Amino acid sequence: MGRESQIRRSLQLKDPAFWAGLKVPELSSEGPELRKLCEQIPKQAQTLAAKLRIPAVWIAFVGGTGTGKSTLYNAFCGRQISRTGVERPKTRGAVIYAHEQTGIEHRLPGFLGPVRRMETEDGTGCSGEGQGLTLALHRDPALESIVLADTPDLDSLVEEHRESALDILRMADVVIFVASQEKYADDVLYSMLLSLRSWGTDLHFVLNKADPPRGMDLAGLLAEVTEALDPEQALLDRELCVALPFIPAGPGAQAGGAHQEFAAAVCRMYAAGLGTERRRTEQHRVWAHLKADLERVQEIAAAEKGEIVAWEERLQGIFEECVHRLLQREEARFQAGQRRTVQEEIRNVFGRYDFLAGPRRVIGTCLRLPLRLAGLSGDSSRGRQKDLDKAKNKGDARPVQEAVDAFNALVLKRCVPQNQSSPAARALRRPELALTPEDVESRFMAVQDRMASWLNARFERMAREAPRGKAWGIYSTSALWGALIVSFETVVGGGLSLVEVVIDSAIAPYVTKGAVELFAYQELRSITRELSDRLEQGITDIVQEQKDRYVQAMRDLGPDEPALEAVRELAGWTEKDATAALSTGPEHR
After folding, report:
1. What integer is the mean pLDDT of 557-575?
2. Strand duo 115-117 + 202-210: pairing
3. CA within 20 to 30 Å of 20's CA: 159, 250, 350, 487, which one?
4. Is 70 exceeded by the pLDDT of residue 560?
5. CB-based burial of residue 421 (10 Å sphere; 0-12 exposed, 13-18 middle, 19+ buried)?
6. Which domains occur in the chain, in start order?
7. Is the dihedral of CA 222, 223, 224, 227 positive or negative?
8. Among candidates 406, 365, 371, which has minimal Cα distance to 543?
9. Is 202 exposed, middle or buried (CB count within 10 Å of its CB: 0-12, 13-18, 19+)?
10. Which of 167-171, 393-397, 521-525 has the lowest mean pLDDT?
11. What gap in Å lies between CA 57 and CA 148, rounded to an integer?
């Protein structure tokens, strides 16, 4: 992969908008998982990029309300950076204390929000902000390779406080978990302890504000608490557990000697080689999780594509079923009585065929005869276009509308996922997806318009190409046009596949062996058959349009192929590829 392509892919990897655009209809049981993955992947990528660019170990302080977390944090900073007091919750947003040489201000991950600078000289500290983080820079050489982060309370009733704490924990190489005698067994805090242990982060457990009962020292109290929390010694590393004595709360409360000694010991531990090792371990862990998530996205996309194919097959089955029923109903409408009416009309046309009579009388006789085919009538008019206009406007779109309605009902019954909150269920139930009666009517009329235009053009060509002889003339042309109008009305009235047989049986007695008669007879049969095929295709296309709307709605929800190609490339990266791309590419804030 070239450098330019690598940079483009790294930007996509970190871009929340790119991942938000990667969606699936959630037809499979795995589909809903994609949303969560697409939220966390760009955060993981931004986290890894920031870890690679900021040359420092991140030590994050987490805990519950009133555990003295901020007091301990200030002991690590060596001054009051995070405001303390009895107000709850005191810390409203993340507070970061970092050396100015780290360049942290321009290298923080974008998901941490806007960065606000604070001055540290007045010694009042700050409580952070609900959105984004507060950054305090220093020049203390003892903390040059350490970033200290205070977080909002994990058990805060304010949702954004908890989210801010969890976002900061993504950056943590080391976690100082601060508990108290009153809160160490809290469900929220205990759940976070379990999560932190599963991450593999260095976890220091601090029992703060420790006030052992008479006859018990701090060590005894700590042992009692850790045993209650972790009887199997699988959760807490006992060498990283400490109890610190109670310090009265209040504005400007200062940590005691034990707090300062603990802070100094931890900072010395991670300022040396252990800190570098810890950073590398965390970078490797973040990349491993990121790669696993990228591979999982591919698996979900493949499962969803397979479900879309199966869904389209079910939809096709419903379409064929509804079209078959529609054509059957159209044929059923053409009952025996209607067949006799058409045969009678054709015989009247040819029976009144008179070479000595004027052409207008012949065609007039044809068009004035009563004709009842599903509400159609054969009123007389002058000119072929007028004849066609009257015939085509007698068509009935109601059976087509009924077929579309039946199709929609079966789609909602058989093809909408049971999970009504899924993107597919919401999309397929959109009212605007269904063809309205006005839509069906206009499309049915358009089908008849095309049939009429085709019939007129075909008749003109037939008249030009007919063999010339004494038996052919404008009289027979008029008679044939009358028969074609009857054919047209029969088809749009529901005859379809039966019309050819009905008209054939009516005309056959009038056909002689003459070239003109045979020519006209063959053309009439061909035209009648074509009219039937065109109407059948036209009404099928209307139902097909409804089906295509559903297909397009589903495909709009399907994974975008260029995006999947990007995911495939990213999932194929090695850790070395990711390190090279994320450590030197453009920032994403």
Report:
1. 93
2. unpaired
3. 159
4. yes
5. exposed
6. 23-47+57-271 (3.40.50.300), 299-559 (no CATH)
7. positive
8. 406
9. buried
10. 521-525
11. 9
State both tokens at 440.
Answer: 């069906």
CB 503 within 8 A of CB 346: yes
**pLDDT for the residue 335:** 46
Q: Which of 281, 389, 402 is nearest to 332 (CA)?
A: 402
Look-up: residue for tokens 């049969």? 525
Edge-to-edge, what's the strand order for the sheet holding 146-150?
115-117, 133-138, 94-99, 146-150, 57-63, 174-180, 202-210, 241-245
- For 479, list phi and psi in degrees, rounded to 5: -65, -45
Q: Do 335 and 552 touch, CB atoms closer than 8 A?
A: no
Residue 251 DSSP SS3: coil
Instruction: Read off the tokens for 437.
Output: 């009666």
**Token code pair at residue 548:** 């295509």
Position 125 scores a pLDDT of: 65
**Which tens digits make up the pLDDT trace of 536-552?**
899 999 999 999 999 99
Sign of CA dihedral 203, 204, 210, 216: positive
Alpha carbon distance 368, 389 (integer Å): 15
Helix (H, G, I), strand (E, B) or coil at 320: helix
CB 9 within 8 A of CB 261: no
CA 535 to CA 494: how far, in whole Å?
A: 10
Determine the Cα–Cα distance for residues 284 and 288; give it in Å rounded to an integer: 6
pLDDT, one tens digit per residue, over 440-486 is: 999 998 988 887 787 777 767 766 665 554 343 333 555 555 556 66
Which of 156, 167, 166 has its CA nearest to residue 127? Answer: 156
Q: 526 and 483 in contact (C-beta within 8 Å)? A: no
Residue position matching structure tokens 């599963």: 198
Do residues 538 and 265 lie in contact, with contact meaning Cβ atoms separated by under 8 Å? no
**Span 397-406, mean pLDDT?**
93
Q: How many helices (H) and strands (E) does the chain have?
A: 20, 8
Cα separation, 88 vs 153, whole angstroms: 9
How much is the mean pLDDT over the chain?
80
Residue 63 in contact with residue 153, Cβ under 8 Å? yes
Residues written for the chain: 589
Residue of 408, 381, 397 lying closest to 485 (CA atoms): 381
The answer on pLDDT for 386 being more than 80 is: no
Exposure string over 492-512, b if 16+ CB within 10 A, otherwise e: bbbbbebbbebbbebbeebee
Give the 3-state DSSP-derived string for 477-503, with helices as H, strands as E and coil as C.
Answer: HHHHHHHHHHHHHHHHCCCHHHHHHHH
What are the DSSP calls for 399-442, one per residue? HHHHHHHHHHHHHHHHTS-S-TTSHHHHHHT-GGGSPPHHHHHH
